[in-house]
């Protein structure tokens, strides 16, 4: 029995070309909406035709950015069924983000049912072409009409879906990253561990600078000493150094990625040690220059497992693994996408059928 009522569109859109989707450019016919009112809680969950919002210009989200979001995907398997990857983790993380941003929690089951039921309604939008998926963007905005800086007493939870191809135009090919020394993304006590829009707003200047210099993403350093590696714009990072995998520890400034967590579980299950610890840019570049750095890759829902082929920090430029995709990077990509697209058996309970 469906939990949420559905109002179907009377003007379905034309389906996009599956071989030319790009990332996050096309949107499906429906969206999920739910409102929060203080004293009443979350109410009126519903699936409605995809449409613009009408919001008062004094709406809090426009001024103080009390907003959080998630990113997840629905995958079409060879037998035509559609499935989600660890959606409860997204429910937990949006509530962890919400706790920091004073946004009231959504019961995990209601979040997952909202996503499942919306994807079921727009099921025929889940693309079939290899490597494509339906990117799902749940988000919550503060909707009180007031200019005082306070927690809103009303919120809108919305879920939209976008049939998408590769996050990087080049697909699964090594990316070039740029270590940023000036701008910082997060400090302890701030909002780095949350998926709040403000984290991304503050990251755009460095990303533009990196792009102009020919790099696809920024590698952030810690906000205090500007010494330790944190993460990349839309990915967590992992490095294979001297036979072990090293990834920055989750210390409050790094987003606790669900792909990161899944990759750590997979790598450990293959008998390879994973160290979650402080890793300085100096240690990383020294390892690269002395030949100890074997592989580097990023992990994320949009980016999946993305090999890092080149890194630049000040005047030091290094090529990783001859610019080729490394062995662990490829194995992780194959295993993870295998589970997500149903080609590899899910022995860990990560898959939820729609
Ligand atoms: N770090 C940042 C800043 C991100 O935006 C993302 C993407 O969501 C990630 C890491 C990876 O997280 P996940 O694997 O949960 O998608
Ligand atoms: C994701 O991987 O889901 C993200 O949210 C990345 C994004 C900021 C485009």
3D architecture notes:
The chain has 354 residues and is of the alpha+beta class. It has 2 domains: 30-166, D-amino Acid Aminotransferase, Chain A, domain 1 (2-Layer Sandwich); 175-340, D-amino Acid Aminotransferase, subunit A, domain 2 (D-amino Acid Aminotransferase, Chain A, domain 2), CATH 3.20.10.10. It contains 8 helices and 17 strands. The strands form 2 sheets. Strands 8, 9, 10, 11, 12, 13, 14, 15 and 16 form a 9-stranded mixed sheet that branches. Strands 1, 2, 3, 4, 5, 6, 7 and 17 form an 8-stranded antiparallel sheet that branches. A hairpin with a 2-residue loop joins β15 (304-313) and β16. α2 packs across α3 (108-121) and α6 crosses α8. It is globular, with a radius of gyration of 21 Å. The protein starts with 29 loop residues before the first strand and ends with a strand. The structure holds pyridoxal-5'-phosphate and 2-OXO-4-methylpentanoic acid (COI). Pyridoxal-5'-phosphate (PLP) binds at residues 71, 231, 234-236, 255, 257-260, 299-301.
SSE arrangement:
Blueprint: E1 30-37, E2 41-49, H1 60-64, E3 67-69, E4 72-76, E5 82-85, H2 87-100, H3 108-121, E6 133-142, E7 154-164, E8 175-179, H4 197-201, H5 204-212, E9 217-221, E10 229-232, E11 236-241, E12 244-248, H6 258-269, E13 274-277, H7 281-290, E14 293-300, E15 304-313, E16 316-319, H8 327-340, E17 351-353
Parallel strand pairs: 8-9, 8-15, 12-13
Antiparallel strand pairs: 1-2, 1-7, 3-6, 4-5, 4-6, 5-17, 6-7, 9-10, 11-12, 11-14, 14-15, 15-16
This protein binds pyridoxal-5'-phosphate and 2-OXO-4-methylpentanoic acid (COI).
């Amino acid at each position: 029995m469906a939990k949420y009522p559905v109002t179907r569109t009377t003007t379905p859109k034309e389906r996009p070309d599956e071989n030319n989707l790009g990332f996050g450019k096309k949107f499906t016919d429906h969206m999920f909406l739910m409102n929060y009112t203080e004293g009443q809680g979350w109410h009126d969950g519903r699936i409605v035709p995809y449409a613009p919002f009408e919001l008062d210009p004094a709406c809090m989200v426009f001024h103080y950015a009390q907003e959080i979001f998630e990113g997840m995907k629905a995958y079409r398997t060879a037998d035509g069924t559609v499935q989600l990857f660890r959606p409860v983790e997204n429910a937990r993380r949006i509530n962890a983000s919400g706790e920091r941003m004073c946004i009231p929690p959504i019961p995990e089951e209601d979040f997952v049912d909202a996503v499942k039921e919306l994807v079921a309604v727009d099921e025929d939008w889940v693309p079939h072409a290899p490597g494509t998926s339906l990117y799902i963007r749940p988000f919550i905005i503060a909707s009180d009409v007031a200019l005082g800086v306070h927690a809103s007493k009303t919120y809108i939870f919305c879920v939209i879906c976008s049939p998408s191809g590769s996050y990087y135009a080049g697909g699964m090919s090594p990316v070039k990253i740029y270590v940023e020394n000036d701008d910082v993304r997060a400090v302890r006590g701030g909002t780095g561990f949350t998926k709040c829009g403000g984290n991304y707003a503050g990251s755009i200047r460095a990303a533009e600078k990196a792009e102009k210099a020919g790099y696809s993403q920024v590698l952030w350093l810690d906000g205090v000493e500007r010494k330790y590696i944190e993460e990349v714009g839309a990915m967590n990072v992992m490095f294979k150094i001297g036979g072990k995998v090293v990834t920055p520890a989750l210390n409050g400034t790094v987003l606790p990625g669900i792909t990161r967590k899944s990759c750590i579980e997979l790598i450990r299950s293959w008998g390879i040690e994973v160290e979650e610890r402080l890793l300085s840019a100096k240690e990383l570049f020294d390892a690269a220059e002395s030949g100890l750095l074997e592989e580097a890759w990023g992990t994320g829902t949009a980016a999946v497992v993305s090999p890092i082929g080149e890194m630049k920090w000040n005047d030091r430029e290094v090529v990783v693994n001859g610019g080729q995709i490394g062995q662990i990077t490829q194995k992780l990509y194959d295993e993870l996408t295998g589970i997500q697209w149903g080609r590899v058996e899910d022995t860990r309970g990560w898959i939820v059928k729609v």
